[in-house]
Structure formats: C-alpha cells, structure tokens
Amino acid sequence: xxxxxxxxxxxxxxxxxxxxxxxxxxxxxxxxxxxxxxxxxxxxxxxxxxxxxxxxxxxxxxxxxxxxxxxxxxxxxxxxxxxxxxxxxxxxxxxxxxxxxxxxxxxxxxxxxxxxxxxxxxxxxxxxxxxxxxxxxxxxxxxxxxxxxxxxxxxxxxxxxxxxxxxxxxxxxxxxxxxxxxxxxxxxxxxxxxxxxxxxxxxxxxxxxxxxxxxxxxxxxxxxxxxxxxxxxxxxxxxxxxxxxxxxxxxxxxxxxxxxxxxxxxxxxxxxxxxxxxxxxxxxxxxxxxxxxxxxxxxxxxxxxxxxxxxxxxxxxxxxxxxxxxxxxxxxxxxxxxxxxxxxxxxxxxxxxxxxxxxxxxxxxxxxxxxxxxxxxxxxxxxxxxxxxxxxxxxxxxxxxxxxxxxxxxxxxxxxxxxxxxxxxxxxxxxxxxxxxxxxxxxxxxxxxxxxxxxx
Length: 456
Ligand SMILES: O=C[C@H](O)[C@H](O)COP(=O)(O)O
Ligand SMILES: C=C(OP(=O)(O)O)C(=O)O
Ligand SMILES: [Mn+2]
Description:
Layout: H1 3-17, H2 34-46, H3 53-67, E1 72-77, H4 88-109, E2 113-118, E3 131-134, E4 137-140, H5 154-157, H6 162-183, H7 203-224, H8 230-233, E5 238-242, H9 246-249, E6 253-255, E7 262-264, E8 269-272, H10 282-288, E9 294-298, H11 304-314, E10 323-327, H12 334-347, E11 353-356, E12 363-365, E13 371-373, H13 375-392, E14 396-402, H14 420-423, H15 437-455
Parallel strand pairs: 1-2, 1-14, 2-5, 5-8, 8-9, 9-10, 10-11, 11-14
Antiparallel strand pairs: 3-4, 6-7, 12-13
Bound molecules: erythose-4-phosphate, phosphoenolpyruvate and manganese (II) ion (MN).
Protein name: Phospho-2-dehydro-3-deoxyheptonate aldolase
EC number: 2.5.1.54
Pathway: Metabolic intermediate biosynthesis; chorismate biosynthesis; chorismate from D-erythrose 4-phosphate and phosphoenolpyruvate: step 1/7
C-alpha cells in the first residue's frame, strides 16, 4: 500500500470514530477554556498508549470463556480513584484484596478467575446533579479527579483540563506498579498467606487463612511432584474504567499497527454507565468503533429491546467476549427485572457475558448524610443474580464491585456490623461507599458457595 493510500485509510477510520462528535454526550464537564482542552488533548495524543491492543484481545478471549461458563470475572476497585491515593501502599492493598478474592473464588469454583481492576483510569464520575449545595453555597459537583477537585471551593470545583494529562500519568504509574506486582513475584501463589498480612485481623481473613493453608499443602504436593508452571508464579491482571470523559478517551484511541483497527488504549476494558447508555448517544457511538472488550451497565428500567439494540450496535458480529452486560438492579428488583432480560436475550440467540454489580442499585443516604449500602442488600442481589441465571439456564459470569483494601467504614453491616454511627469513623470515599477488606472477603466466600453449587 502506498504511503498516501495508507494515510487516507487511517483518516477514514478516524473520521468514522469521530461520528460520536455529532451525538449528544451526557455527563461531560463544562470546561472553562476550549484552548486548554485542545492543548490537553494534543498532549494526550502524543503520549504512548497505556495498554497494548494485543492485551485487550487476550482479555476478550478470557471474557469469552466466562460467557461460556468456563471462567469467572472478578471486576473491582474504587468507585472513584483519586490522584492522592495512588500510592504504593494503597495500590498494593487493593491488588492484594483482589488476589485474595480471586483465590477464594478459584478454589471454590475450580474455575479460572479473570482479575480486572477498576483501576488505572477510574477517575471520572457521572453525577445525579450538576451542582452541590452546602450551607447555602452552591458549586459544581465533584466529577472525579480527571475533571475537578473535591475541596468545596470555587477554585477547586472549576473543571481543569490539565487534570486530563495528570490523570494519564497517574494511570501510567498505577498500571506500572500493578504490572510489577502481578508479574514480578508478588502474585506467586506461594505468597497466598502473605497477601493476608497487614490487614486488621477479622473473621473473614481467619477463614481465608485456613483456605490458604490448604492451598499451601496442595502447592507443596505439586512441587514435590515436579510440577512447575508460570500460572502459579504470575497472574494476568487487567484494568478497566467507565469511558465517561470523551476528551480523555478520544486522544488515547489509536490505530493498532498489527491490524489497522481502533483500540482505546486507556484501559483493557471500558464500560458505558447507566446514565450514558442511550443508543444514539455519544458514548455508545464512540465505543462501537473500538475493538476492546466493552461493558454496558443495565439498570432496572432496561428492556429486552434496549439490550438487543445495544447488542446490535456494539456487537453486530456477536464476537465472543466483546460485550459484557453489567446488571445493577437493586436487591428489591433483581428477581423481577433480570429474568425477562436473560430470557429475551437468550431467545434472540445472543450470548453476552452477564455480570452482576450488586452495589449501584442499593444506594441509600443516612439521616446524617452518608451515602451508603447495606451489606445484606449487596449479598441479596448476588443471590438473586445466581437464582435468575439458574432459572433462565444462562451463565452467571462474574461480579463487579466497589471495594478497597483499606479498613474503611462505608457500607453498613458485614460481620463487623458497621452501623450508622460507625460510618463517620473512617468514611474516605469521595463518591460511592466501598466494601472494606473484610466485607470484600466475606462477599467472595458467598460467591464461591454459589459457584460450587454450579460446579457440582
Ligand atoms: O458511581 C457513582 C455514583 O453512583 C454516581 O456518580 C452518582 O452519584 P450521585 O447520585 O452522588 O451523583
Ligand atoms: C456510576 C457507576 O455505575 P452506574 O453507571 O451503574 O450507576 C459506577 O460504576 O461507579
Ligand atoms: Mn460508583
């Protein structure tokens, strides 16, 4: 192909991608200075990709296995990552928590677990309201560190495009550390006890300890038999975030030199949120043009028709692993809302990966103003998810949760029995309440029980 022609082909591919600019993009910030957005965008466009297209393809294959019931997806991390909390200790504790949960699930289900962080890019938030009022003062709502600051001052809450570039660099250093941890020996299964160290002692990690002891024995047995495998010493770990801010996603979208196809290189998997999944909206249009695995959140108002149109638009070829539906119905609604969706999509012959987000349909606000969730509701939605799939004969392929390795008090209940008064002691989230380390392990044990029933 001549140089001229190749340039023309690339131009056409990018022009198609840019169709999204003609569609309505909800939940975008009001940037005060268009020239500064241009400059940030040009800067991002000149940066190296954060992930390699081949890795996104590999994840797609793993997700395809999950959709067939041959693997299980564990997707988790903060609601809103922050620049300040992108420290070695906090990243390590989140990775450790996910590795621990993965061990519990793998052991329970005898199935590979795909580890996918809500990490290294989860910096932009859709909000119910554009503004926040405190003591009679109204300012723009906090939209995530990629947009503005959390401090309640006019300066901090003004949208600042230079944050787009800062977010790229924080994502790069986060991803670098994740890669180092998971490839460099930290994720070696012989560290299964070490991942539990440093966390406050609690019933869930004591239960974990006894499972870790069993795994240890099994590993020693395998070692004695001469079994050696990289699968025991390293682990694949992928990253994902909501592709909300198109001024961030667009300049990080690149043409893959191997295939000439477009990939959004800001993360391995990108998802579309409940508030931005309109079929004719900019987010659906944008992601329809990239080849990464894509998720879409589906809330209780989603119809079979909505789901089928999204499938036709985002996955017209029905490519295995391409599309994940992340349902977030609420504990009180899942048993009514999910079965018809599963049955309708199945009847139409489609096989997306079905994942449950048992967090976002269960939000409540306490009298004292804390956004929280009851751990019991989260567990109840999880059970409802497995029930619905059992009844429909479809595959419950994974979970999507907001969690942290820190000992926070953001969700009510769990075996520590966090109550409304306790919430104030260590409520650190800048957006939604996360499961703490113990609640995350408890949840993993429950899911493992459910998966065991399927396996046997
Ligand atoms: O994850 C996010 C929240 O659910 C979303 O940002 C909405 O939060 P809000 O209702 O506090 O704006
Ligand atoms: C905003 C989120 O979810 P949803 O789009 O399902 O409300 C989220 O995952 O943080
Ligand atoms: Mn959230």
